[in-house]
Design goal:
alpha/beta; Transcription Regulator spoIIAA; globular
Length: about 100
């Protein structure tokens, strides 16, 4: 997984590319630490460049959602495509958080 991150005003934006799998757990946890340290009020995960996600990747997004609730920032997923979009729908993530087309 490749991670591009930026902070705009009070929002932390993350663009994820390639595949999100179990092996990405440590870099994803470090990313969440960056979000917390930035004291962002919102975090947008742009998944438009993500080509695949496995169950561990879904679990990492669930960890991010849990952290967002505990730390008081709004989490949004933007532009999931293909298999990633299908798994998010199948897992009912749209019932848990905002998913923007």
């Amino acid at each position: 997984m490749q991670i591009e991150k930026s902070v705009r005003e009070s929002a932390f934006e993350v663009k994820l590319k390639d595949r999100m799998t179990f092996s990405d757990h440590a870099p994803f946890r470090a990313l969440l630490d960056d979000v917390v340290n930035a004291r962002a009020k919102a975090c947008v995960f742009d998944l438009s460049g993500l080509t695949a996600i496995d169950s561990a990747g879904l679990g990492m997004l669930a960890i991010a959602l849990d952290m967002s609730k505990k730390r008081g920032w709004q989490m949004t997923i933007r532009s999931p495509r293909g298999q990633v979009k299908s798994l998010l729908e199948l897992s009912k993530f749209d019932k848990l958080l905002t998913i923007e087309a």
